[in-house]
Please model this.
Amino acid sequence: MTVLGSYTYGKSLDQASNLGEQVYPYNFALTRAPSSFDIRNNFVTSYRYDLPLEKLFRHSNQATKGWAVSGITRFSSGLPVTLVNPNDTASIGSYNNGVNGVGFADLNVAPGPLQLNGNPRNGQLYFNTALFSVPTLGSPGTAARRLFCGPGLDNWDMALLKEIRFTESKVLEFRMETFNTFNHAQFFGANSVDGNINDSTFGHVINAMSPRLMQAALKFRF
Model:
């Protein structure tokens, strides 16, 4: 059995993560926030286990030799949710700038609990949208661009392998692979939660990763 694991704890802060996020020039602190690609905790492990069928059945032939299970498992905290006010209420010319044609201005935030939804599958709001509002014209918002993170990742990709060895250098390998093996609803992603206050889906989880996918592969090594 072979196992390789890694864990990363990190934090990335910036004034703007892309050209569409404009810096408020009169108070840089208002736009300093976690980067859109910030991932606080990330654990990844890969593994391979050669199945001991020869010992289990006490017989060694092509039917019992060459079987293995392998996979990659990842547990990760979510990406930050970007709060968007698409109107230039601060009157600093940030509207419709950037390569994506989307302007940016901060929202106002009131004191109170965010009430993050720990089970996005229930279809309820992911965060307490009542805390946020559009600033009055001519004033910047009080909320940072990103205050909290979206749903994390719990993903298992696995494979069942069978190798048939003809010679020392010639091997035929059959693989049955599954991605998102346990078919979890994965809401991980930069745009999984709608942070645009102008949208009717503001505060809702709107995107998910692919469901379980399966594929078979045949490979000949020589």
About this structure: The CA atoms of residues 186 and 210 lie 8 Å apart. The chain has one helix and ten strands. The two ends are 24 Å apart (CA to CA).
